[in-house]
Specification:
Helix content: 40-55%
InterPro entries: P-loop_NTPase, Zeta_toxin_domain
Number of strands: 5
Pfam families: Zeta_toxin
GO molecular function, one term: kinase activity
Protein name: Zeta toxin domain-containing protein
Strand content: 5-15%
CATH class: Alpha Beta
Structural class: alpha/beta
Shape: globular
Order of helices and strands: HEHHHHHEHEHHHEHEH
Number of domains: 1
Keywords: ATP-binding, Nucleotide-binding
Length: about 290
């Protein structure tokens, strides 16, 4: 029957048994209600820039400052070299990071990521904390697990192209009692970027570049979220494509080494090519983020 592999995974989750890896496939797709958004002309740009800067300042605690929407959020919120006390390709000293997720931050790759200003780190911490607090894990008898942590946690990776229907499939499996979505910390860079205070203005100015100009910071916060959830022993759901097979093979081995109790599953969602592009186009009219073909 449809979703039988996913149903098996659900049974394994409930019984805390089964193999280390599971693979489920579905061709279900999401139909997103379309919305219309119109940009404003250049006449109001100066006022909008000031308003956006003030909104960012309110979210981060910084005084209002000019904000350059031609640069990424990463470039706008880089720490000065003197405050990070390190080169651009090495990790800052542990004392540089905000306390709550310092251990996770210090383990990330700073040859790829930027060093963020302390005030921006606090805003990122708020995003991570809010996403961690949304889970509630129950055991096979329906009792809440203390601290939202199961005895044998799962990390589930979704695989498939954007527009394949991954989100729709997960929600469908949850609605039909086949996947306990509320028991998982969802790690989705697209969801993270919607929490960035400047994202709506990036979309208004240029839907084609909004995703790219928020990609690095959204990915950085998603890495912190995943690391914090795994550190706490929580179930984790990672949204992605699994396109880079070699990288993920190494990543799975690293996970097994660092978190030996964690079980790994892959939920592979497929759809016809034209349906993928059609859904991505519909989504762009709702979110403002355009995915080039």
């Amino acid at each position: 029957p449809p979703h039988s592999a996913a149903l098996d995974l659900w049974r394994v989750l409930r019984s805390r048994g089964g193999a280390d890896e599971a693979d489920a496939s579905s061709s279900d797709g999401a139909k997103v209600a379309a919305g219309e958004g119109e940009g404003e002309d250049e006449e109001g740009d100066a006022a909008t820039r000031t308003t956006a800067a003030a909104a960012t300042a309110a979210a981060t605690g910084d005084p209002p400052a000019p904000y350059d929407f031609d640069l990424s959020t990463e470039d706008n919120h880089r720490a000065s070299s003197s405050s990070s006390s390190s080169s651009s390709s090495s990790s800052p000293s542990p004392s540089y990071f905000t306390a709550e997720f310092a251990a996770v931050r210090s383990g990330l790759d700073y040859s790829y990521h930027a060093h963020y200003a302390t005030s921006r780190q606090r805003m990122q911490d708020d995003i991570v904390r809010s996403m961690l607090e949304r889970t509630s894990v129950r055991d096979a008898e329906g009792n809440l697990c203390p601290g939202g942590t199961p005895e044998d946690p799962w990390i589930v990776f979704t695989a498939g192209a954007m527009g394949a229907g991954k989100t729709h499939t997960i929600r469908h499996l949850h609605a039909t009692g086949r996947f306990p979505l509320e028991s998982f910390v969802s790690v989705d860079p697209d969801e993270v970027r919607r929490h960035l205070p400047e994202f709506a203005e990036y979309v208004r100015r240029s839907p084609l570049t909004a995703g790219d100009l928020t990609r690095k910071e959204a990915g950085y916060v998603a890495e912190i979220l995943a690391g914090a959830a795994l550190r706490d022993g929580r179930n984790v759901l990672v949204d992605g494509s699994l396109r880079d097979r070699a990288w993920y093979a190494r990543h799975f081995e690293e996970l097994r080494g660092e978190y030996p109790r964690v079980r790994i599953a892959i939920l592979h969602v497929t759809a016809p090519r034209e349906a993928v592009f059609e859904r991505a186009e519909v989504r762009s009219r709702t979110t403002g983020r355009v995915v080039p073909r």
